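fold-stage: in
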Amino acid sequence: MTLSEYFSQNRYKPKWFIGDRVSGKWNGIPFVGSVLNDTEVNPEVGPVVHISVDLPISYKGKVYTLITTKPDKLNKR
């Protein structure tokens, strides 16, 4: 078995790809942005999507331009 065959059979397949436009809610705050990465680091946490938001989000005294959320919480724009 080659490495490409192993990874195609046994690893997470992304739902979102770089540059996909998405919207959703992060900690109850609506956002719109572009997907940077959709990956699974370990099976305990599961898959996560990193997003560059169009407008900065202020949450608990901090300003966020990059956020991380679950892929099933996103909507395609």
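fold-stage: in (second)
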Amino acid sequence: MRFLRVVVWRLALGALAAWAVLTTVFVLFTTTREWVLQRQVGALKWAGREEDVIAAVRDEYLASRGLDRPLPVQYVDWMGDMVTLDWGVSFVTGEPVFPTVVAAAGRTAMYVFPALVLAVVVGVGFGLYVALNPDSRFGNLGLGTAYLCFALPNFWVGGLLVSFAVGGVIPRTPLVFDHLLPTLLTATTMLGGVVSYARAHATEYATADFVRLVEATGGSRLRVATHVLRNAAVPIFSLVFTEALALLVLAVFVVEAVFGIDGFGSLLLRSVDQRDLPVLLGGTLVIIAVGVAGNVVQDLSYSVLDPRIDTST
């Protein structure tokens, strides 16, 4: 029961965070300028249209988006729609928001999940190798390369990859251009941080007494690495998860803009530019849900990574 209580408590905190973030987005949306309407009004004024025509266009714009109602009424309606997952239709395309957001998130997940797995496996493995072999030239060279990948702006690297594809150096096939290159670019964005965390925490245990005992009893390098990783798993997992979530939220916008992927990041950017409130709120709720679910999984995984930890406390 205590285990279930922890899950329920986490979900309750997630619901509170979702309400706070969605409320902030709604307030920012309703208190900023209606630049889409201003573009339309500006075009009409440039064309010399009469004031009554401009006023009619303004009224029609606000009414079609439900923005002519009192703000408290709008707020209650939108929050209720978010809770019931009845997100309505897009202001711009007229398509249902929920399947649109889910489909865009699925296209993003096609390159994000492989990139995350690649960065974690390679980063943790290499960080562990460097911690156990601090004088290795190969380790130092690889460590420097990982930090270089982390330091280079991913939009610049992505631009180079696109130019190579246009020039024929890289084959511009859907498999390479839409999946392989975005996966590699996203993975290299996270790789430096993962290697750094894994190396730092593995180094703490590389000279511990239990490691020396394993080595003294003839344990192989693989067995030593396994013991070190098991003890360093909790802090590595915690930091990697936090870092990966923060980087991914930013990386998807750059990656999809560079490679022209019609994914989750592109959808959110368009919703901001077009002031498409249903899509913006729905996309925000998806980000919150992923963060909350990830934190629950992170907490529950502690007892698996280290049985000494009592998750219920």
